[in-house]
Amino acid sequence: MKKHPRPGHGGRGNWLFGETKGRMSLRCWKFRGQSIILFVVALVIVFSHAQGLAQNTFKIPGDATARTLDGKQASISDYKGKLIFLSLWKIDCPPCLMEIPILNRLQKEYSSDDFTVIGVSLDRGKEEMVSHIVKRADITYPVWLAYDQPILKYLDAPFTPFLFVLGPDGEVLGYYPGKIPTYNDAVTVMNEARKLVDGEQKRK
């Protein structure tokens, strides 16, 4: 997992820029072992939010905007009615980059079902490199730039990658700390979140 460094103090090795592949693979293996445990924890976290959905659930407000790569403003309210995987990442975080194919596949297979992935870059002043990764990895989901944007104060995560699972009104259903191990695990988290949303809608 990549802890957020001070600006200008991040590491660099990653597969998209063709650096030190073996070292990254070793780190990924260790990280994957942790993620299996965290996956169980994450499901508990998501389930624990079920009781609070009808109460004062934390939401990311519509005026908490971010910037897109083409310079426009975007917000969660643009995706009202959708289940959202809000994925926080950085370009110098190998696990973040290794998670991209999983999120890409999820977006391709489920984006027509009231679901979307949104990648949120926490990088400072590295827009060109973020854009390079989006093109190189053929990212199919929206990518936002959060640094120095209103949405940033709502994204308090200790490290990257970090996934917020948001409901149809921007409410935070739960979160997934760290890299999702496999595509099937990502689908499981998505389906569990759908159950929470469906259950709440039936109670209204």
TrEMBL record:
Domain Thioredoxin: 54-195
Cited InterPro entries: Redoxin, Thioredoxin-like_sf, Thioredoxin_domain, Thioredoxin_ResA/DsbE_sf
Gene3D superfamilies: Glutaredoxin
TM ranges: 31-50
Keywords assigned: Membrane, Transmembrane, Transmembrane helix
Keyword flag Hydrolase: no
Domain of life: Bacteria
Pfam families documented for this protein: Redoxin
GO molecular function: oxidoreductase activity
Membrane in keyword set: yes
Protein name: TlpA family protein disulfide reductase
Native species: Abyssobacteria bacterium (strain SURF_5)
